[in-house]
Amino acid sequence: MRLTEKFHIESREQAQRRDFVGLAHGDVALLRDLLPFMEEHVDEVVEQFYAHLLKHSEARAFFKDEGTLSRVKSSQREYLLDLFRGRYEEDYFENRLRIGVTHERIGLVPKWYIGSNSKFLCLMVPLLAQKYRLRSGKLTRCVLALTKIMNLDQQLVIDTYIGSLLEKLNERQRLLEELLSQIKHAADVLASSAGEILAATIQVVSGAAQTAAAVKDTAATVEEVKQTAQVSSQKAKQVFDSAQKASQVSQAGRKSVEDATRGMHRIQEQMESIAGSIVR
């Protein structure tokens, strides 16, 4: 499934978004005309941006080695040039949504993406000002066109953050419902255990009463005493076995409740983490 379909940003929605930010045919033409100029300066912009980004330890942690940094710089170069290629249809939207999914997957929170867009704008506008220093009207139109397309990009990336987080929340809800079912089952087991323990207790009392009666009524012969003792021993063993079984069932029920409770705590921590991501 394409991401545009998954996030319900298909052709009609795409047109509506372009219209809402005011990205008109004239803006598209301006941006396309700027492509050769930006191809000359894109490496400079990328290097300046990453020199700035790597000053921040939290952002620097995403680049484990020079190879990773080099690959990201190459992708960033293409990202910036795509802003000026004048093709803002289905594939453009799909690509921007994919970037958002990647950012969410690696834990790059929105503040870095939004801040990066602002920094790129600050790096590119002075270049445009130099190019059109004697044509203020053209400069204004170019800056506005660039602002519009970058705003559209931000919408798409933030949509993927929100959509991905909602997916996680739905999964946590499903797990929570499973745990609640487990707790209900454990409660039923405990209730059954209580019944078995009560039955075992009644057996103990009954056995003791029978033993007392047997001893009282026993004839004086050694053989009768021996038989009574054997009967009492057998009853005691039966009672012990019943009590032990009831104890095992009770322990199993208690373990199910403890496991379910630990699972609920884990889900709570994950949901708090998701909420924290949304806040950031």
Count of helix runs: 10
By DSSP, the count of extended strands is 0
| Low-pLDDT sequence parts | 218-222
State the major sheet. Answer: none
Strand content: under 5%
Cα-to-Cα separation, first versus last residue: 29 Å
Radius of gyration: 36 Å
Give the structural class.
Answer: mainly alpha
Q: Report mean pLDDT, rounded to a whole number.
A: 80
Order of helices and strands: HHHHHHHHHH
Shape verdict: elongated
Share of helical residues: over 70%
What does this structure look like?
The chain is mostly helical and 280 residues long. The chain contains 10 helices and no strands. The chain has helices at residues 3-6, 11-21, 25-33, 35-53, 57-60, 66-82, 90-106, 110-131, 136-217, 222-279. Residues 218-222 have low confidence and may be disordered.
Topology:
Blueprint: H1 3-6, H2 11-21, H3 25-33, H4 35-53, H5 57-60, H6 66-82, H7 90-106, H8 110-131, H9 136-217, H10 222-279
Helix pairs in contact: 3-9, 4-6, 4-8, 7-9, 8-9, 9-10
Quick structural summary:
By secondary structure, the protein is an all-alpha fold. The protein has helices spanning 3-6, 11-21, 25-33, 35-53, 57-60, 66-82, 90-106, 110-131, 136-217, 222-279. The radius of gyration is 36 Å and the shape is elongated.
Give structural attributes.
mainly alpha; 0% strand; elongated; 87% helix
